[in-house]
Amino acid sequence: MKFQFGIEHEVAFVRSNGDFADFTNTDYDEFAAIIKQLPEYSTDRACLRMGDQGIRRKRWYIEGIERFDRVGNMVKCIPKGIEIRTTIHSSIRETLMELRSSFDQLVEVAGQFGFSVINTSFNPVQTTFIPDPPLNDYERLRMAASPEDRTEHLPLLTYGPDLNLSVVGATVNQTIDWAKKLTYYSPYLVPFSYSPCHYNGRPWSGKSVRTFHRTGVRPAVLAFINDSQSLIESDPSLTKLTEKASEYGRIEFKAFDSCGDFDRYAALFVLLKGLILDDSLTGRSIVPDRDLHQQSGMQGWDSVEIYQGSYQVLQAAMTAIQNPVINECDHISDQQHLDRLSQWLNATTGLSARSLTARAKGMNNQLAI
Known about the structure:
By secondary structure, this protein is α+β, with helices and mostly antiparallel strands. It is built from 11 helices and 10 strands. It has a single domain (about 5-360), classed as Creatine Kinase, Chain A, domain 2. α5 (about 170-190) packs across α9 and α9 packs antiparallel against α10. The radius of gyration is 20 Å and the shape is globular.
């Protein structure tokens, strides 16, 4: 299989006075001034969605919630930060090289305006977003258009990556099946992205406040297809219709936490790639299991069930990427990335590799294999 890759990385900022920059203290125009100083590449239009409001013209754009008047005119955008997105690449390495370049440019320009970058997956200060003024009739109708529109207030509090990958020549049915598979195994995949987090101004007692509050209400995975007859009605959504040729077959994994170490993203890409290549895991789900994601977000690998699931998906990915018949390139690099995840899982649980294997084999639960 030949893969294509892209990534969207949401960047959070701290103001020069030390305050976290969010909808309570930062205006759209402040972030817009940063975007204005960053370059625009006309060749990006062939593969990047521009949007109907002209906000997404560049590789960097302001992420937030749009507000409208009663007749549908956008009157302002409430910002949460700036998102970086890459163009489409045939290798993970090229994708991450572009991300690092765009990130470095953003850091430099933002610093000129008194903003510094901070890595977080959830607003460390605010716990809710209440629209002010309240939503009008037009906005309420607009929010009812899809499950994601109804919950668009939640992403204003969260930060994370969208890891995008597709298989060249894949059918719509294959794309949807892979999306169902990644949705099912998402609670076991996301702990590989966890890092210490804050909530309501203090350290959070769990492993991922973003996962605990978001996944299940919001999608873990979206599959972009061009066949309206294959759309699946679900809440949250699993499939999304697109008319942009560059998006056909794109699988967008949306459940990972934000990682300040971009090499972690490379390893997570390989993990997703490995599960697409794998033919041993049989679990499928149209919507993410919210209870299991909350268990994962609260306990992580302290949960026997989550630990076993993470171990098994990692082993399945390792086996698949070592098969040169189905993995056409990057065998050594792929293995190195998954070895890193294995070492991290091992170190986090404090077990030797032998004990790790014995523990996983000795457990008995209902994980589909």
